[in-house]
């Protein structure tokens, strides 16, 4: 029954479909309206041919069919802006510290993390400009490295503000950088209670000046007997400075020692000659050139226990302890009588000053270039360098004064002073004394004012 109903429905649907198609076909065959038919037949009018107007102008010649020749285009000049390629400095790391006691350069560089090959190259570079055996505690190593650990720059800061720099690039470059210090003058005043050394130390004046004073006045003033306490000492000295750092050792310029009954004054020149003038109560006493300026007297004239052999024997001169290579100067004018070696004295220079007086300079490391036997020298001339040749425990200069072949105390004998005084210009010496006194008074007043201001 259901099957019959479905068949009937399908027949009815089919009848409707046939009817719809028939109606559609009939509608499509109806005639087109006249207006639409006319519009479909429209077409644009044909274009009229252009008219050529004779104007008398020259007509262009017909273009010839010529194949063009191709040439390479010229290159545009390159400007600096086009050629500039920005370079980028890789990030750098800086490491720095002081050398400790007993350390070697290699140990410090290893602590900086440098490879063994780099440490060897750095040691060779720095060693070309500085004797690495002279490394001391307090010297500073600065290492600048790139991100890969390779060194970019290494700097060794040694004494007197000197720096040795090694720069690693396409080529290794090493140079020595020396500061350009300013000379600053200072003044101080102190009262001697027990000794000159203690008085200087208490007044915060370089205590090493006690050596210079003892050397200058040792043959004139008996410090043990004449210093009873309460004596006034006034000093003027120079320091070479880079900022707040003192370069080298301070140098005395002027000293005035008031013993009550007499005033002793000393002027040291600033020309590097080391030739000092001694005055007593405003009159020139003598001119003396220190053999080793600013050195420490390590042994005086007289009997002593020998530092090498251990027995007691006569010490025939004065020993000046100083760094290897420190200049040695003639103490009085004369003529060089000997240059060479004399057993335990090592390398020696001897100068004859007339009247049977001779000075001997021993343990030298070298002699001034060009100096020869027979040459004349003036007081203060550099004749050699401090060394450790012969029988000695370290760098020093053994200085002797011999009269007719016999040794005398260099700090008390006046014969050299007599030789030097013959060439002294008293008028010029007195002018220098007046200028030194004026400068000392001015500096002391300035120091007093500054101290008073700081207290307030």
UniProtKB/TrEMBL annotation:
Pfam families: Peptidase_M23 (PF01551). Residues 1-20 form the signal peptide. GO terms for molecular function: metal ion binding; metalloendopeptidase activity. Residues 313-410 form the M23ase beta-sheet core domain. InterPro entries: Cell_wall_metabolism_enzyme (IPR050570), Dup_hybrid_motif (IPR011055), M23ase_b-sheet_dom (IPR016047). One of its GO terms (biological process) is proteolysis. Its cofactor is Zn(2+). Keywords: Hydrolase, Metal-binding, Metalloprotease, Protease, Signal, Zinc. It comes from the Bacteria. This is Peptidoglycan DD-metalloendopeptidase family protein. The lineage of its organism: Bacteria, Pseudomonadati, Pseudomonadota, Alphaproteobacteria, Rhodobacterales.
